[in-house]
Design brief:
Length: about 350
């Protein structure tokens, strides 16, 4: 028995994914064209003969169906028999699709198995998300004035980015005028308040001196007796001999930690979005915590993140995670939804304030 499989997290509800799996026209757009077998219900033929890893067309029969959670198929490819299972599980961001195929009669060569699994993964991670985004776009209510819009996809402002920026500049100007007017009023109020008088200077104290009667009877000032400064009194003072101080031997500061480096790569693209990947490397000799800040293009938003914690502030997304061991690396991926059909890469990426490679 040989087994291949793949799984993908999708930012779409389970019923939409189920439709893409079971509708023949949609199935032909992201995997292979399908034709019904005349007179036989729940049976069709997939035209897979030209796909990598396939030798011929595959005749498929549905053996179990639980809408929209599970579909099981029995497959016959020129005598090679397999069982194919597609399981859909709801998640917080949408749903998770797990596809598993097991041989029951016959086998694949190692090269054929690898090509077949690669073809399956590419179909699930690139072409299927593009079809799902296209389906979501078809379900957006573009009629204005007839109730609220559906929230399947981000809606671009009717005024366009340039007019929105002009409106923001007008609002900022009005706010600045209001703040300036408030400051002038506060200054006028403070300047009209009475100033506190400075406390009066203390009166001069009279000089106390001894007096003696002169010949005319008027008092005559005589200097008061002052103790003489003799050598003995000077010698009685303790000498100020500086005591020995411990010498301060400078200690060498530890070398600064080696900064982390990171590189960005667009792992896959699709209609109205893409998947980004960041690899954080620690070339140092000790574990190091990391913070990566990615600046998305205007009109983009995060759908899902694997292997990192994240928070969003406008177009800036801050990613954090566990410390990277010395000489090791940490990889995390994030799904981005873009309001334009052609996905746009992030405008910036930094790790610890230093630019990431790849952008």
């Amino acid at each position: 028995m040989i087994e291949i499989g793949a799984q993908v997290d999708l930012s779409h509800p389970a019923d939409r994914v189920w439709l893409a799996l079971t509708d023949r026209e949609l199935l032909g757009r992201w995997f292979a064209e399908a034709e019904m077998v005349a007179g036989v219900p729940d049976r069709l033929v997939l035209k897979t003969a030209e796909l990598p890893g396939f030798d011929a067309a595959v005749e498929v029969e549905v053996t179990e169906r639980r809408v929209p959670e599970l579909i099981e198929l029995r497959c016959d490819e020129a005598g090679r028999l397999t069982e194919l299972t597609c399981a859909i599980t709801a998640t917080q961001q949408g749903c998770r699709l797990v596809v598993r195929e097991v041989t029951t009669h016959g086998y694949w060569s190692a090269e054929q198995r690898d090509l077949r699994e690669q073809q399956l993964r590419q179909a699930l991670t690139v072409r299927l998300p593009a079809i799902l985004d296209w389906l979501a776009f078809q379900q957006v209510d573009l009629r204005r004035g007839e109730g609220s819009l559906t929230a399947e996809l981000p809606v671009i402002s009717a005024f366009g980015p340039a007019r929105a920026r002009r409106r923001r500049r007008v609002l900022v100007g009005l706010l600045a005028v209001a703040v300036l007017a408030g400051g002038l009023v506060a200054w006028a109020t403070l300047s009209s308040e009475p100033k506190h008088a400075a406390p009066p200077a203390p009166a001069a104290q009279p000089l106390r001196t001894g007096t003696s009667a002169g010949p005319t009877g008027t008092p005559k000032a005589t200097p008061s007796a002052r103790p003489s400064r003799t050598a003995a009194s000077a010698s009685a003072r303790p000498s100020r001999t500086p005591s020995a101080k411990p010498s301060r031997t400078p200690t060498s500061a530890p070398p600064p930690p080696t900064p982390l480096v990171a590189r960005y790569d667009t792992d896959s693209t699709r209609l109205f979005g893409y998947t980004g990947e960041v690899v954080v490397d620690n070339p140092g000799t000790a574990p190091a915590a990391w913070t990566v800040v990615v600046t998305l293009a205007e009109g983009s938003s995060i759908d899902d993140v694997d292997d990192a914690e994240w928070r969003q502030d406008g177009q800036q997304i801050t990613f954090t995670g566990s410390a990277v061991p010395a000489g090791k690396s940490q990889t995390f991926r994030f799904d981005v939804r873009d309001s334009r059909p052609k996905a746009r890469e992030p405008e910036g990426c930094t790790v610890g304030g230093s630019p990431c490679a790849g952008l």
